[in-house]
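Tutorial handout. Part one gives the primary structure; part two gives the three-dimensional structure as tokens.
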Amino acid sequence: MGHSVLGSIPFLSSKSDFQTILDSLPLNVLTCDPKTLVIDYANKASVDTLNLVRDLLPPGVNGDTIVGKCIDVFHKAPAHQRNILAKPSSFPHHAIIRLGPHMLDLHIEAIYSGKDITKLALSWSICSEREQLKIMVDNMPINIMMCDPRTLEINYINKTSLDTLRTIQHLLPVNVDDLLGTCIDVFHKTPSHQRKLLGDPKNLPYRAKISLGEEILDLNVSAIKDAGGYYIGAMASWSVITAQEALTKNVLQISGKVSDASAEVKSTAQSLSAAAEETSVQSVAVATAAEEASTNVQTVAAAAEEMTASIQEITTQINHANITSKEAVTKAEETRGVIQKLSEASQKIGNVVDMINDIAEQTNLLALNATIEAARAGDAGKGFAVVASEVKSLAAETTKATDEIQTQISSMQTVTRDAVDAIASIQETIGEISDSSAEVAAAITQQATTTEEISRNVQEAAQATREVSNNTTGIQQAASETGAAATQLLGLADNLSSKAGSMNTQIGNFMGGSEK
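Part two.
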């Protein structure tokens, strides 16, 4: 059971002296009857403060009217407060209550007269800013703890710290809910080091990584001083960095791999650059050769087209000659028939001449017989003899003429036979020529087809060569672009290597700095 300090001051001989002292305090003070809870006194500071917040008070309640009011007017459920205040063990009682946007810090003490409580004294203040700050610190997403620099007892733990500590409760020597008021020595095997460190604010700030079971904690301790510079506490902001440490280790490993990979990329880029340069040189040579080949193929294609045209012309002429030779064969055949008929006619004429010759011989024989008979007749047969002589002379001339005709006919028959044989030979030769012309025409037609195919293939080859030339130009351009890309890649590899080294250095510095 507590007793009021004010109630034990010996020089407060009267109620007037007591109220005079309270009125002079800058602290808000109210007193009430412990049984009825009716306010029977409000010092000047309370009156002034209540008037400042009168708009937030129940109707009719303000600093000027507060005396005589029951404290029930401040509570929606006054029974709860009455139960607390009815128990002497509740004192001193502390509470933070809300009044509109404000937070009120209440301290209630019992004033005794002997063993009896004669008054309840309430000191209060508007602590909105302080509470807002406390709420902010309590709810900060950072683990905050504070201890007394002399006793090293934990006197503050924010909500985030409590929540985090509960996740590692199995590693703690004390239950989380019992940590407030516990000395930090329980966390250390050799607490003298920590006592020496935290006992002097010159040693702060201090940062360290400590192991707690399988977890790693990052601890940052700072000195908290009041407005006069007095060291009032050591504040520790801390975090569980087990995952971050593992991540940092992985990052360092990855950084090393990146550094190695950047070296490989640089080497590959150098090889690629050299290959691209060689490809560019070779592509230039190939492009030149392809251009020359394209020119040559186009020349051959033009010649093939001209040869195709010539072969087509020759084919036309040979076809014409073949037709002409066929006509000549036909005409020779007709001429042979005519000459054959002429030979037959000359044979018939020869037969007629032979017959005339026989008649002439018979006439000559008859004339001879007539001459003989005329000679026998004498003068009577002279006239007849003259006629017989004339007939004989005509028969002789006829015989001579028929002989000559016979000779001409024989000669004509010989010439006719020769002509027939010659025409037959010509016909045979023309037939052979016609057959040869037909074969040549067929061969030339085949050759023309082949030449056209060659010309088409040459044209396709020329087109392909042009495409090769164009593609080679594209390859050359691609090689140039590849070379440029390789150069850029080489630059990026150098930059990557530099940044990987820088990242290693920075991570090393970060790791080293975080251990200080």
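Part three, for discussion. The two ends are 50 Å apart (CA to CA). Confidence is low (pLDDT under 50) at residues 1-13.
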